[in-house]
Amino acid sequence: MFQKVWGWIKGLFSRRKGGDVEVGTKWDEKTEILAKDEWDKLKKILSEHRVLLNEVEKAQEYHDGEFKILKRKPKRKDDPNHRLAPNYASLIIGMKSSYMLGIPIAYDVPKGILMQKKRNEDVPEEVFEQYKEEFMEVTEENDDHAVTMEAMNDGLIAGAATVLFYFNDNWDIKYQVYTFNECIPVVEGRELKQAIRTYKNEDGIECIEIYDSQAVTYLIKDEEQYKKDPSKKVNPAAHHLPVVPAAVFINGKKAKPHFSRIAQGVSELGPDVRSILDEYSRIVSDNANRMDVFCDPYLKLIGALPSTDDVDEMRRRRVIAMKAKQGDQADIGYIEYSQESGGIEAHATRILDDLFQTTSTPKIFKSEAVGNLSSVAIRQLYTPLDNEANEKETWLNKFIRQKVIVITMMLNVRNAVQAGIDPATLFSSEKPPDMPIYDWRWMYWDVKRNLPQNDKELAETLIKYKGTLSERTLLKQISYVEDVDEEMAQKRQEALDQPRVPLNNIDGYLDNLDAKIAGRSMDDDET
């Protein structure tokens, strides 16, 4: 049993040269290269990473609202100095991640489809159900939706984000996301070869964790040299997986080739976007300063020279009363600067339009976005973002696929431990173990975009296609149906519990009645 699945897994991981590590003995060949010449290659990767962080940290500062305008000094000491920083950077990132992942990813193991494929002909049906149940349990315990959303947010800002997986002491599967600042994805071609986590412990010592296809190596920095962490009893420590226990979300690909082993895409808050944000914050800040000056004009006194106390008293009472000297004529009034604000407003509007066009952000605050829009109008409003999402979804699917592979392999390892099988030899033995082996290709996922819907039009469309499309396909179109299988099971149960015959659906009632009778026990109650 499971011979075909096992043969495919063996062939896949023998090409990757993983899965044969003994606990605490060695790392893989890629980490071996890093370790040469006192970790010279590692030092070069860390040095290159620090250079890349200069640009990353600028984007992160803008996302957090730390604009240049906030550091501006007044030209003169008595000048007003408003420093307004409308944080459209956060809106841009939030809009894109919410559009793509606002609806949780739907995972499914379609037994009917899988059992028709030749490679699964020796897999019992209950194994598919068991795999889905265990997989969903892992995603729920780790709050998968939040982890995936956070990875995309960090990736949109920094260009890349990494999720690391591990077993806790109870062999529970755990994973969490790390920003590009904390974890360096190292690739060869397009394949992830290592994930290097860097951080400082509570004593301020720089620590390095290197995740490869066989083990995790723990290092600390001693002066200018790296050495194995003496506090770890087992180092390197096997993770028992034939792949790097990590998944990386990369935000697209840079147009200009950069010959680097560090995987990083582009930031949505690059220099072009930041320059527009700076200009807009300057416009609104200068306009606020101008308003302060206009609302507090100079008092002009010609032909009279009151004392300072008199001036203060007049300002306090908001009354001007002066008497000119004999023979002089007093001219008293405010010096007003008249300027139309139309030019300023037009400039600010254009800058804001440029920002939304450059970042493909829908202008949901515009008057044309208000009201009961049709589905076509909604799609037109979201077309720029939708076009960009088409490209990003290819990278997102790669990230999800890697996540599914790692979780599936970890489930196999955990099940081996529970069955008393040595996990170190699970993927290196010549024949499949006496236990179910899960194949990550059984897992299907659906990324549904968080596009606002006209519910009335959607309902009419679903009614129109009822009888033409399957019930599963129709339910998938409804955004508030999170689990299609659960919804279908609930509908079947409601039909079984129906006390009366629905005259408009007699055939459906009879089908459900047959199912209800088939589910009854044939045993005699008295026996």
Please trace the helix and strand order, writing H or E for each element: HHHEHHHEEEEEEEEEHEHEHHEHHHH
How many structural domains can be distinguished in the coordinates? 3
Describe the largest sheet. Answer: 6 strands, antiparallel
Q: How many DSSP E strands?
A: 13
Beta-strand content? 5-15%
Whole-angstrom Rg: 33 Å
- Morphology: flat
What's the number of helices?
14
**Low-pLDDT runs:** 15-25
Structural class: alpha+beta
Organism: Aneurinibacillus migulanus
Pfam families: SPP1_portal
Protein name: Phage portal protein, SPP1 family
InterPro entries: Portal_protein_SPP1_Gp6-like (IPR021145)
In short:
The protein has 527 residues and is of the alpha+beta class.
What does this entry look like structurally?
The protein has 527 residues and is of the alpha+beta class. The chain has three domains: 3-269 and 385-445, no CATH class; 298-335, no CATH class; 454-518, no CATH class. The protein contains 14 helices and 13 strands. It has helices at residues 3-16, 29-63, 88-101, 111-114, 125-141, 144-158, 271-295, 308-317, 342-358, 375-418, 455-465, 471-476, 484-496, 506-518; strands spanning 106-108, 160-167, 173-179, 183-188, 191-200, 206-211, 215-222, 225-228, 237-238, 246-250, 298-302, 331-335, 444-446. The strands form four sheets. Strands 4, 5, 6, 7, 8 and 9 form a six-stranded antiparallel β-sheet that branches. Strands 3-2-10 form a three-stranded antiparallel β-sheet. Strand 6 (206-211) and strand 7 form a beta hairpin. Helix 3 crosses helix 6. The longest helix is centred in the last third of the chain and has 44 residues, at 375-418. The protein is flat. The two termini are 38 Å apart. Residues 15-25 have low confidence and may be disordered.
